[in-house]
Design goal:
Radius of gyration: 19 Å
Number of strands: 5
Helix content: 40-55%
Number of helices: 9
Strand order of the largest sheet: 2-4-3
CATH class of the largest domain: Mainly Alpha
Largest sheet: 3 strands, antiparallel
Structural class: mainly alpha
Number of domains: 2
Amino acid sequence: MDGNRLGDIEITDPRAMRALAHPVRLAILDRLQRHGPATATELAPDVGATPSVTSWHLRHLAGFGLVRDAEAGTDRRQRRWEAAARGFRFEAPEDEEGRSAARALTREMFARYGELPGRWAAEVEPGLDPVWQKAAGLAHTRVIVSAEELAAIQDEIERVIAPYVTRAAAERPAGSRGVRLLRYVLPEQDEEQAGGDR
């Protein structure tokens, strides 16, 4: 396995996980990753906070290396921020503090993105051209695998999408648009504990 092919920032510090496990901070990072650099004033309407509160959250995220100054400038009132990477990833650490922080971030991410498919189906899909409607999709596949096999599946998915995630804007073909690939990998309860194969 080749590790982090997508250029995501890897969050290993439980304090950083807890910092990001906040609805405004997660919204800030999402907005910067999707739309590029912005000031706190520009971000505020999208993240549901005042410019001063947004600025405070930006500085907090910067303390963990998740966002940074987009450009050097002398006017701090117009400070532009950017995401440190186009995505992020984290794993639950071995210790209880780390596992608790990872659970908190996981719950916040589900709260933020859990309704995204329903909103897409109601608001976006009806207005798509037929070619984009056909390319869109949803699958619900259950497999029975070992932890090692599951890791290999995840690695292969990243191998396939990495060239599309990391290519420069100038290399994108005409007609390209942003596409969300939501990947939930949810191991079920141990089948022996749950009463056998279902």
